[in-house]
Every structure is written in C-alpha cells, then in structure tokens.
Write a structure and sequence with these properties.
It is built from seven helices and 15 strands. With 287 residues, it is of the alpha+beta class. Strands 8, 9, 12, 13, 14 and 15 form a six-stranded antiparallel β-sheet that branches. Helix 1 packs parallel to helix 6 and helix 3 crosses helix 4.
C-alpha cells in the first residue's frame, strides 16, 4: 500500500483509498454479502476473482464505453482507477427471468415497467434483454424503479445513454460467455462521469458478485438454475429462516469451499486463463 494512500470509504466488498486528486485505489476484499448484508465469513480469493474478471472485461469492452481502470497491481486484488462522479443508479440488464425480476413479474406481470407475456416461468429467457434500473441504497435494499423514476434521478438524455450502453455491454458479454458454455442471465453495472462529463464504466464488470452465471449444459427453465455466482450462498441463507437483516449468518466450511470453487470456475471458463496463472501474473487478464 502506498504511504500516500488515504482511506476514504468502505463498500460491501471494496476498500477505497485516495492516491491523489485524480486517482483512487480500489482493494477488493474476500467479504461476501447476501441480500445487501455483509456476512461474517469470508470466501478465500474472492476479491482476486472479482478484480481479475473485471480487468478482463474492462480490457475487452473499452471500445463500447471507456472505463475507470488505470492499472492492476501485483497482489491481484487492487486496482488504480480514475476518480468519477458516480451516477445514482444500479444499471441492471436482464436476459432471463430470475431474482427480484421474477418476484416482480409474479406480482404484476411486469419488471420495472416492462410488461411481459403471460405464462413465463422461473429462469425463462426473455423475448429481449431488458434494462431495469434500481436505486443505490445507502442502507437496506436497492429498489427496482421504472424509466420515469430513473429519469428523475439522472435526466432523460443521460438515462437513454446508460440504457443503450448497458444493453450493448450485456449483449457483448452474454455472447462471449455463451461461446464458453455459460449463460449470463443478468448483470449489474455502474457508471460515472469523468471531469469532461463523459460516461465511464466503473466499479466492477461481469463478475460472480454482479451477475448471474449459469452453466448452459444444465439450463432448464421452470426451476432455479445451478450457478457460478453467489446464489450458492443465498440459497444456503434461505434455509436458515434468517430475516435478511444485520447481522448475517456465518457460512459453514463446505459452503465456503463450494462458493470459492464456483467463483474460480467462472473465472477460468470465461477468461480461458488458469487462476494460478493469474495469481502469478495478474496482468495476464489485460492482454
């Protein structure tokens, strides 16, 4: 850690340090959160998976939209990034019906104002990918919002831009993943503005924390899918009768090991890079 780095914030997963007026250092921990609550048990190497996968995607999507990455450090979990003014939206794209989208559909027949055909079931592929933004909750849970509510937060022109870019990023990543036997069911992206007001992709991109990844060879709509993401931990927490408020439950060793294996599998299948090779040379994901 640079002696000049000053700690400025803690997120659910990342610690944020100021390097200077233009750069931040983001350090991805091994913390895991479910239902917006940080659990007391860590997942070994999780932060390195998130950092490596984000770097991999940043390097391959920069022609669609610029991103905040300046450098990936040798520890495999720290990134130097440009400072951004972050937009107050979680930019969610859904290609399949799952999670809170499924819950909303069952209640209303729509997801974030998008009316959907009747008769869809758990994990069905949607007729087309949907941009379904949500709020960024400082405390408690993010809430799905519709177009009008999102425009009230960022303005119509900026909303149209983030919708277009989010959908383009999702299409690129989902096609890339499909070629490697993985379904990208949905994803969450975050954007900010640089000093010139240009839209920039920030935070992380297409990781097991921000996306639902399903093995294509086991996909069957009508039920929850096996996954390469933190759904494994969510499913465990759902068996406990936990009210999804702080403090969260401890995670047993077998669930920890199973979660780490899923994260590493997602990394290796998506990148084609052995995780041990990444640990030796993190910049391999940028090439």
């Amino acid at each position: 850690m640079s002696e000049t780095a000053m700690h400025v914030a803690s997120g659910k997963v990342r610690e944020i340090y100021a390097l200077d007026e233009e750069r931040l250092l983001l350090v991805a921990s091994d913390r895991i959160s479910t239902f917006d609550v940080i659990l007391p048990t860590e997942i070994p190497d999780k932060g390195r998976v998130l950092t490596g996968l984000s770097g991999f995607w940043f390097a391959r999507t920069s022609e669609i939209v610029p991103n905040h990455l300046l450098a990936l450090r040798a520890d495999g979990r720290s990134t130097e990034c440009r400072r951004l003014e972050m937009l107050p939206l979680e930019c969610v794209v859904r290609g399949y019906l799952a999670g809170s989208g499924l819950k909303d559909y069952k209640a209303t027949g729509a997801v974030c104002g998008h009316a959907l055909p009747a008769g869809l079931v758990d994990s069905d592929k949607l007729p087309e990918p949907l941009f379904t933004p949500s709020t960024k909750a400082l405390e408690g849970h993010d809430e799905n919002i519709d177009r009008e509510q999102a425009i009230a937060l960022v303005g119509e022109e900026r909303f149209d831009e983030v919708e277009r870019v989010s959908l383009e990023l999702y299409r690129f990543a989902s096609e890339y993943a499909a070629e490697r036997g993985i379904i990208l069911a949905d994803t969450k992206l975050e954007f900010g503005l640089d000093e010139s007001g240009r839209l920039v992709l920030g935070d992380e991109a297409f990781t097991p924390d921000s996306s639902r990844f399903w093995p294509a060879d086991e996909y069957a709509p009508g039920r929850p899918q096996p996954s390469f993401d933190k759904q494994f931990v969510r499913d465990y927490c759902e068996t406990l009768g936990w009210d999804k408020t702080y403090p969260g439950p401890a995670v047993p060793d077998d669930v920890v090991a199973g979660t780490r294996a899923r994260y590493v599998d997602a990394f290796e299948q998506l990148t084609g890079i052995a995780f041990d090779d990444y640990l030796t040379d993190p910049e391999v994901v940028l090439r």
